[in-house]
Q: What sequence folds into this?
């Protein structure tokens, strides 16, 4: 079962996939993969990093999610916390 990244119980799984998500972020940028799914992955990783207070790593993921065009209020609200 996939849990929300805000749930502490999901953190070990989030940590396990963090390197892959960061590698995907580079590929997303290189290949211009402007898909809602990529925005969701970046948003989830950003949320996990925010919950772990790793703010310098959080902002670029939220910025990329917004850039992709998934301008949902949730993502914009999260991003505005860093502006």
A:
């Amino acid at each position: 079962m996939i849990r929300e990244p805000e749930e502490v119980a999901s953190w070990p799984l989030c940590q396990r996939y963090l390197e892959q998500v960061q590698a995907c972020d580079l590929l997303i940028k290189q290949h211009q993969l402007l898909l809602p799914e990529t925005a969701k992955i970046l948003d989830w990783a950003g949320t996990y990093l925010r919950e772990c207070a790793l703010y310098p790593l959080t902002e670029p993921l939220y910025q990329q999610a917004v850039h992709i065009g998934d301008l949902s209020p949730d993502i914009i609200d999260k991003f505005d916390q860093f502006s």
